[in-house]
Specification:
- This protein is of the alpha+beta class.
- The chain folds into 2 domains: 35 residues, no CATH class; 35 residues.
- The protein is built from 3 helices and 2 strands, in the order αββαα.
- The chain has a two-stranded antiparallel ribbon.
- β1 and β2 form a beta hairpin.
Length: 70
């Protein structure tokens, strides 16, 4: 559902979608287009779990932006 919303809204880059589940039905609370990047934030924790650091994320985002502007 998050991916469909991301594509439908023509988002780019990193964002965080928050849902609440009520009676097994997901309800979107928000899409945060400027998610936190502190150690306690979700995205840095996900990167760490994948064996990556913030530097990898920033490099990928910069390369993606450069490719779009070529």
């Amino acid at each position: 559902m998050s991916k469909r919303l991301y594509l439908k809204m023509e988002l780019s880059g990193v964002c965080r979608s928050e849902f609440i589940i009520v009676d097994e039905v997901p309800h979107l609370l928000e899409i945060n287009t400027i998610p936190g990047l502190t150690e306690a934030s979700i995205i840095p924790q996900q990167l760490e779990a994948a064996g990556l650091g913030l530097n990898h994320l920033f490099e990928a985002m910069l390369n993606n932006a450069l490719e779009k502007n070529v």
